[in-house]
Amino acid sequence: MAKVLYQPRYKCALAAMQTVHAIPRTIPVLHSGPGCGAKLNNNNGTSGMYSPNIFPCTSVSEKEVVFGGVDKLRTTIENALKIIDADLFVVLTGCTSEIIGDDVGEVVSEFADAGKKVIFANTPGFKGNNYLGHDWILRAIFDQYLPRRKASVQPGLVNIFSAPPMQDAFWLGNLRELESLVSEIGLTPNTIFGHGRGLPNIDRIPDAQLNLLVGPWAGLESVRFLEKKYGTPFMHYPTLPVGAFETSRFLRALAEKAGADKTVCEKVISSHEDEYYYYIERYSDIFLEQRVMSKRFITVADAHYALAFTKFLVNDLGMFPSAQFITDDTPAVYRESLTREFQNLNYGITADIVFSTDGDEIHRNVRETATGGNPLVIGSSWEKRLAQEINGIFVNVSYPMVSRMVINGHVAGYSGGLKVLEDMYTEARERLAL
């Protein structure tokens, strides 16, 4: 039986148009109803080279439902190629076009000699959410855009993939921080999203020595596909590294996997840790004497951030997890391994996790179990009022993010951990000022 999705924290698979949108000079072409693009547009106000308001769309109506929409799709692609200055056009399907059975692949094949590349991905909302859609689009790009050729491996070249762009407000800043860390240990990072990247970087993907996925599960299907197509091994690091402990562990694991110079890696780690703990020591009195935030914390976020912040808050700060709620509808196949990660914490601490997409259920659970103190609440804008109800300290890190603007901010790495501390204790000190 279908259930009501109260306080949604993700969107349907078609919303992975944001994955396309994040690749420079690449634009989605929507084969969907007229309202899908507008309703699925990111509420963080991001635009880019192309505004989502001008994404080409077939605006499927009752006529297409009865007679089929392939003619309208063909015309839409033809006109998009004429008037939009893009280099890659990715046709995405909505629920209606999938239900009526339009052969999108056949229509797209007619544009093989169009001068600009046209590919497609099946992204109906009834098959999954935009975390899954992110993987489907990457696979489509790797399968249809990249040539089937023998890879010319470039030693040290590492393709980096992480959370779905724009769904994660910190996606771009985190990618740039990961690039910087990878570079520091002597490797060459390659990412495809954001300014200065794009199709030239996609063209380099087959020649990488290693594909690196940083995150619990979104994107795993894509790096497995690249391994099958080009024989490129991949490293799956399930935790976005936030703070000193996890970032140092991440760098050591990457250096081992990629064969980087371990001496260089240790020098990089030592330098960063010295600076990191210098700042921690400067503000240690505030961290130790702050009386308005308890040692307990609650996370309500997708798997990416629930795991990252749990490890940071336990391993770096010695805090204790209350129930941790994972809201991205993690596929069942990944839940066991993800649960194990929440047991892999310092000091013998473990975290109980709850997989739930129901905001009402989550908030009711928190109200019933959050007793005493002033817990830290890491979550989305939906949790702001909840934090007030339980007298908690609220930090907004996950989608939806309504009252906070992120341009190029990040939470990854050593510097990202310090920025999270700034957010946490700014909120705590504001409580003292009231």
Topology:
Blueprint lengths: L16 H5 L4 E6 L4 H5 L21 H6 L2 H14 L4 E6 L1 H5 L4 H6 L7 E5 L8 H16 L8 E8 L9 H14 L3 E3 L8 H6 L3 E7 L5 H11 L3 E4 L6 H15 L3 H21 L1 H6 L6 E6 L1 H13 L4 E7 L5 H10 L11 E3 L3 H11 L6 E4 L3 H7 L3 E4 L16 H21 L1
Parallel strand pairs: 1-2, 2-3, 4-5, 4-6, 6-7, 8-9, 8-11, 9-10, 11-12
What can you tell me about this protein's structure?
This protein is an alpha/beta fold. The protein is built from 18 helices and 12 strands. It has helices spanning 17-21, 36-40, 62-67, 70-83, 95-99, 104-109, 130-145, 171-184, 199-204, 220-230, 244-258, 262-282, 284-289, 303-315, 332-341, 359-369, 383-389, 413-433, and strands at 26-31, 88-93, 117-121, 154-161, 188-190, 208-214, 234-237, 296-301, 320-326, 353-355, 376-379, 393-396. The strands form 3 sheets. Strands 10-9-8-11-12 form a 5-stranded parallel sheet, sandwiched between helices. A 4-stranded parallel sheet has the order 5-4-6-7, with helices on both faces. A 3-stranded parallel sheet has the order 1-2-3, sandwiched between helices. α14 (303-315) links the parallel β8 (296-301) and β9 (320-326). α7 runs parallel beside α10. The model has no long low-confidence stretch (mean pLDDT 92).
